[in-house]
Amino acid sequence: MNAISPIDGRYANITLPLQDFFSEFSFFKYRLFIEIKYFLFLIDIIPQLKPIDNTVTRKSILNIWNDFSTQDFHSIKKYENTTKHDIKALEYFIQDKFKTINLEQYSSFIHFALTSQDINTSANILAIQDAIKSVIIPTLQNLANSIRIHASSMKNDVMLAFTHGQPAVPTTMGKELYVFYYRLKQQLQYCNQFKFTTKFGGAVGNLNAHYFAFPHHNWDKHADDFIHSIGLYREKYTTQISNYDNISNLFNFFKTINNIVNDLNIDSWLYISKGYFKLHTDPKQIGSSTMPQKINPIHFENSEGNICIANAFIEAITRKLPVSRLQRDLTDSTILRNIGSLFSYCLIAYSSTITALSKISINDKVIKSQLINNPDVLTEPIQTILRKHQYTDAYETLHSLATESNIDNDLIQRFISNLPSHIYNELQHLDIFNYIGNSNNFS
Prior knowledge:
two-stranded antiparallel ribbon, Fumarase C, Chain A, domain 2, Fumarase C, Chain B, domain 1, Ribonucleotide Reductase Protein R1, domain 1, 3 domains, two-stranded parallel sheet
């Protein structure tokens, strides 16, 4: 009721799954995960930590993360109110936890030789990866499957295609929908193969403190191994922050996906307006406060609007994230706190399109009527056969026929019947409902 953003208000039931990845509580839990896993990783590297190398102690340390609670969250925020620094507050919180498990003497190795962005960036990227794999991709797969099911059910529904908004040649509604399924599946393959990268290299990316404290260790390899152990890949050469080129590429993948979904929204909206699709709704649903007959394609429109906002986020983020003043400024931190909003608008859009598709069916009467009323589209196959038989003015002849104001099916049949018999034989069975190429040949 009091939410400023529709993400947490009107659409909260849709975006709820993303709270596990992008809420303030979740962000601290991800950052705690990185800190704890890093400390556990150091046990195998730093001699001073060898005494705590046992299963029970490791489990107690890991449970600091496993048992993270709202009370723990508020403890960190209390520190942050004083420090005005989120990672330092987190470090103090972990120190307090170490006291409770008798590891206080090892507290100096919490956040050892790191900078805040080693933790923040890694936590952000890990959250993005998890959200995409757990929520976004499954939703897109549901959308793709919905498109595929509709395409399969409409593969024999021949309709008039439109290019430049004008009648073109016959196709099938199934094939036209399958195009969107094909496009989405291509992009989902790219996303599934994507390697999520993060920065992890100390103050300005050179692991200065690490090598100064323990010069005989191969810290580059240690850093690579640690980041790989948490499911990410390390960017080897960076400043204090990630280069953000890779994550920008990921967001641009989603801009492409959004454009595909929006193309489907717009085409479906137009098919509804032409009467190609019938739109079904709940009898109790109101389409207009003044026109009782109205049934509107509101879910396609809702998706289109939310994609507009999501893509605006992506364009702003990808324009700014890869650009920083010298080795660091703080703009990336502010921007990354809005990633949850970006994916929320995407999720709302995908969910709306899924709902929209569930409310449409083919209007067989209208698509057949449109085909029958546009027999001139058969001038393409006729002139093609004439070309095959080396008629040099085939196109011009049919162009002249097509522009006659009284062209109808009878005129076309008379034209065909006056052709030489060997050509007539190829055209005598030409029909507007069978001139569809391979438009129903998909699985």
